[in-house]
Amino acid sequence: MTKNKYCITLCLLVLFILYQPNNLFCQSDIQIDYNREEINSAGKYRKNLPLFVEKLTLGKQTDKEKFDAIFAWVALNIKYDYYAFYSSNGHTPQSIKRTLKKKRGICLDYAYLMDTLCKQAGIDNYTVYGYAKDEVYDVNDSIFIDNHAWNAVRLDGEWYVYDVTWAAGQPYYELSKFGKRIRKTLLYWPKKVKKFTIKNKFRTKYDGFCPENKDQVISKQSFTRIKYRFRILRALVKRLPFKYVVRTNHKLDSSFYLCDPDVFVITHFPDDATWSLGNKKTTKEFTQDSIYYYLDNSMYEKQNRHGVVCPDCDASYGMSPMQTNINLLDKSKKCNPSNKFISFLCEYSISNLLFQESIFIDDSTQKVNMLDSSITFVDKSRKSLDAAKKYIGKDYSLQKNKNIAKRKFLVRDNITHRKYISELKKTLLKKTSEMNVVTRDINAAKTKYYHRDEAFEKLKSYFKFSKSKPNESLNKDLKSKDLFFTKEIDSLNSKIAELRTNIELTLPNFSDSIKKVIAEFNIFLSPFEQKLNLRSQFFDDYKKPIVEKRDFIQRYKNRYKELIDSGIVKGVNNVYMQFYELLSLTEKRSAYRKDQFQILSRLVKCELATFSDLESYKSQMIDENKTDLCWLNQNHFFVATTSFGLNTLKINHEALSDILADEYRFESKRFIFIHNELSRRLRKYKNINNHNRKVSFYYKKMVRKQKQDYLKKLKKERQAAKKASR
């Protein structure tokens, strides 16, 4: 039975392995493999392209190994040309030799260089034009202009997408050196640590009164409050101007090497959806994909790099240049009709190809037709440029209004939060002052009870008297008054005992509620700090992480306000009223005690009470007064600490106000930076459009002249033929 059990288990395991070979034996993650010293040594031959590729791929057997060497060399040695990118007239793709010589270029230069090097190494490589999400992009934005180029490569019959431009180092925004110094100075600003000690000022005087409560009464409690030194100077430093700058990390980033198409398409979308390698996303899906906000290194590290068998890609790669442009023109119009720049590029290229082909045509009719077609496509390209000009203004207006709206969001939120914090601070200040008044009155009551004890000790409980004539009405009146005071004092004692019980339950709970509110404030403060950190990293109000923090704050504000109202406002009101009721009842009982003592003295004189009764009553008064003083002494600490806790909360809210001010400054810097960037892009795209219009104008003029010269030549040849025939 045991043998059969093991056989069945072994058979199931074998079947599992046979039916899932891909999971067990196939490499799911493709890694780049290169030797930096070898590929860098080949760089000295880059002036001779065939020799350079030969040295670069020396000893490499498979296409994957050759591609890795080429990819790594380009990513490590070619740097992004920001001067060309930020030029006002755009950048015309330079020759491969110039790119290799200068070792600089933009995305098109990177893509064309990879095409040339891979072709020289016998690898199929294709340049893909399309859209890439940059620093001004937000989910649900409209896209009018393709702004990037990358590549697709065929290895072992499968197509892979990659972006060597981004692999060579992506730009990022950070504070300038001066801005970093400001932040570092504020971070390590010298702090003043002040120790506050809350004392029972009359603690030493009450040792004789409350010996049994000596260990229960806390004589003092220390708190530490941190304040910044030179606060005025710190405020001036915080207002020093700073700015953002563009940096690039010039290290090979394998995140964009032979990517998972599902991950790659989050940030890259081609003009021809075929080159998304099977995802077939539309521009609407691309623009609405909010995963873009959550991209991080972990997603790229965990991506399953794989290729795709793509017959449509094979067909597109095998097309002639003319077919390629016609196909791209058709696919781009279906993909995004708003993009007129790619339409211009395709139509102009078709016109140029027609003109080049017409040079080698001998048939006059066909040649003239091709020249006419070339002129037609030039006219179409000029119309596309006119349409693109409108979309340039539309894109600028969209981005500009969006940038203004982000600023308005922050200003509105800032004002709302500041009003909210200001109201809380006023509430806390008011309640802190009320608790301070309670603390002051408790101290005054303790002093009063101490001196009252001395006064009670001085009361005469033994005296000489002469017999007076009996007066029944007076005696009856004294007895009724004595009975009245006894009942009133008993009633007051029960009320005082009940109040003390309530206060003894309320004070610790109130102290705990303040601690709870302080803990909740730290939770409330955390998203503000995180939001400030995100803003320092150039995030704005449209980015999903900021939106989530703002939504959390909006939801949490009501809860926090309820905690303040229920835990602090009601607690202070309750403690305030209970203590003042207790003090007033105690004073009323003390007054009754004095009056009853006088009544009792008169009863002793009338021989209706004894000296021992009077002495016992006096001891009762003294003990009761001591009990009052000891009870206040025992509970005074809780009142003082709650007062300090409220003051701590008020100071914490001031820290939140500072965070809101810093957040406003960061958003202002981002707003100015993006505004300048949008203005630069508008000028750049307009200049590119005007430059292309001039180029197409002179090109059309040249084609027309070529046609006219050719027709004149034909006319002369026909006239010469007619003369010869005569």
Number of strands: 10
Structural class of the helix and strand makeup? alpha+beta
Helix content: 55-70%
Shape: rod-shaped
The major beta sheet can be summarized as: 4 strands, antiparallel
Architecture overview:
The chain is an alpha+beta fold and 726 residues long. It has a domain at 28-174 and 248-337: Roll (C8orf32 fold). The protein has 21 helices and ten strands. The chain has a four-stranded antiparallel sheet with strand order 5-4-3-10. A two-stranded parallel sheet has the order 1-2. The protein has a two-stranded antiparallel sheet with strand order 6-9. Residues 1-28 have low confidence and may be disordered.
Helix/strand layout:
Layout: H1 2-19, H2 21-25, H3 36-41, H4 49-56, H5 63-77, E1 79-80, H6 82-85, H7 96-102, E2 104-105, H8 107-120, E3 124-132, E4 148-155, E5 158-162, H9 164-167, E6 171-175, H10 177-187, E7 191-199, E8 220-228, H11 231-238, E9 244-248, H12 261-264, E10 268-270, H13 283-287, H14 297-301, H15 311-317, H16 321-335, H17 341-359, H18 364-458, H19 472-536, H20 544-605, H21 611-725
Parallel strand pairs: 1-2
Antiparallel strand pairs: 3-4, 3-10, 4-5, 6-9, 7-8
Helix pairs in contact: 5-8, 16-17, 17-18, 18-20, 18-21, 19-20, 19-21, 20-21
